[in-house]
Amino acid sequence: MRPAMYGAYHHITNLTHPDGPIEVVDVVGSLCENNDKFAVNRELPHTEIGDLLVIHDTGAHGFSMGYQYNAKLRSAEILYTEEGKARQIRRAERPEDYFATLYGFDFESDQ
């Protein structure tokens, strides 16, 4: 939401279609908020629903400052090494993580 709040810029890379024809798109999040936008009117290679995008420089969206607003689970964290290799350093949260501190939710049983 930082871009909508105070004009923060995040470089975005389309890993699925890196060389597609350039088009102007909006890149938005999944929250039901009108300011959940990473980019508005941004020129990117052709982008389709389901494409894998890298939104660079988003430290506040990592685990340390992430949040579970609207029951949004935290995503996995990927570290890129100096050698250019990707390494997962934290797994994505699962529903049982979200409810782990509440009593009365048993994800191990069939009930």
From TrEMBL:
<dbReference type="InterPro" id="IPR022643">
    <property type="entry name" value="De-COase2_C"/>
</dbReference>
<dbReference type="Pfam" id="PF00278">
    <property type="entry name" value="Orn_DAP_Arg_deC"/>
</dbReference>
<dbReference type="GO" id="GO:0009089">
    <property type="term" value="P:lysine biosynthetic process via diaminopimelate"/>
</dbReference>
<feature type="domain" description="Orn/DAP/Arg decarboxylase 2 C-terminal">
    <location>
        <begin position="1"/>
        <end position="59"/>
    </location>
</feature>
<dbReference type="GO" id="GO:0008836">
    <property type="term" value="F:diaminopimelate decarboxylase activity"/>
</dbReference>
<protein>
    <submittedName>
        <fullName>Pyridoxal-dependent decarboxylase, C-terminal sheet domain protein</fullName>
    </submittedName>
</protein>
<keyword id="KW-0663">Pyridoxal phosphate</keyword>
<dbReference type="InterPro" id="IPR009006">
    <property type="entry name" value="Ala_racemase/Decarboxylase_C"/>
</dbReference>
